[in-house]
Amino acid sequence: MNLRQTTAHNLSTFRKHYVSEISGSLGDLGTFLPIAIALAVNNTVSLSSTLIFSGIFNILTGLFFGIPLPVQPMKAIAAVAIARKFNNGAISAAGLFVAAFILLFTVTGLLTRFSNAIPIPIIKGIQVGAGLSLIIASSSTLLSSLTWLSPSWGDNRLWALAAFLTLLTTNTYRTIPYALLIFLLGLLFAIILSAQSSSLPSLTLWRPHFSFPGSHDWAVGSLDAGVGQIPLTTLNSIIAVVHLAQDLLPSHPSPPTTTAIALSVAAMNFVGCWFGAMPVCHGSGGLAAQYRFGARSGASVVFLGVFKLIIGLFFGESLVGLLKRFPTALLGVMVIAAGLELVSVGESLNTSGARDIWKAAGRSSGLVGEEIAPMLTDVERKRRWTVMMVTVGLLVGFKNDAVGFLAGLLCHWAFEIPALVERVKRRWEARRGGVRLE
């Protein structure tokens, strides 16, 4: 990783496209805010610590990786913690457990071997499945509770419809800083609604507190929440995000590796969880969101990190009331946009966008799909598509990355059985005939 080259890339990109970089930095708030608020309201995490440490991690990852790499909640842990109202010790134990597993998986070299062995159609399936899951989650949670005029004048279906129609225009007018405009509008509405209920944030300096999980916290956090997070983090937050970064930003001077991303995930949680912060990771959905809204370098998340750090240090827990009133109509549409961007990566499965194809051909990824498509027969294209869709279908249906991964792997192996049988048959016949096959 060339830090000088990465820093030069960040500065150059921000100088030329600072509006797009700032807009893109806000693209993942639709996922971050609802989960952080829900956990803070239940006193499961400290909102101030979450903002401060996620801000620091944003800054460091932006400087180190040079791409708009998100810092997202660990969703499987968050879902269990919200449903069961975990205390701070239990959720900290869950985050530390996952960090320890990822670190062990990485330093032993198992992660690299595992990543290299996964067929590209399965990785594409995980990415597409994650995108569809975002769209479904946004529709069923953030947007389903809205009516045409409620819950408030600033948060209803009318605003969701307006935000969605505006989103469609950005397909033609890509220079519109959509996420920045939506964030400022939502913040204005939240301030007005908070002022009406006398719940505006106040100056409250951060007072760090430490979280030391007890034996019961370790048992509950690790087994009930941590175990379920491991496949999601490994597949979506490490392997899928590395492939997505190379798909979206093929010309980046220093693309991230699975080892670097995994060590980053482990380090973030080994630090933040002791201070009551929310367990975090890097997700492909967040990267797709920030890319969709204009981010192209690490400067975008550095900007976001500085913003989080400042408000966490000086406003902290008093922000809960304001953030709770941020319109879910606007957040929901931003999540849908992120999901659509992530789903779109499946389009390149049978073209030069799939690295296993152009690597096999000995060509660079800059070739257009038509130049490389003839390498695949119709049967091969159909098989790759089937493996991807089996992965997508089972991932979405069971709401579990591990289930989708295993289903896709079984489908891939099923297609390999005839070739395997043929190789065994040829080897057997060769041995009977006294011919040795190398």
Automatic annotation (TrEMBL):
The UniProt keyword set, sorted, is: Membrane, Transmembrane, Transmembrane helix
Q: Name one GO molecular function term.
A: molybdate ion transmembrane transporter activity
Transmembrane helix keyword on record:
yes
Q: Does the keyword Glycoprotein apply?
A: no
Residue ranges annotated as transmembrane are 22-41, 50-71, 91-114, 126-150, 180-206, 257-277, 297-316, 328-346
Its taxonomic path starts at: Eukaryota, Fungi, Dikarya, Ascomycota, Pezizomycotina
Q: Per the database entry, which stretches of residues form a coiled coil?
A: none
Q: Which InterPro entries match?
A: MOT1/MOT2
Q: What protein name applies here?
A: Sulfate transporter
Domain of life according to the entry: Eukaryota
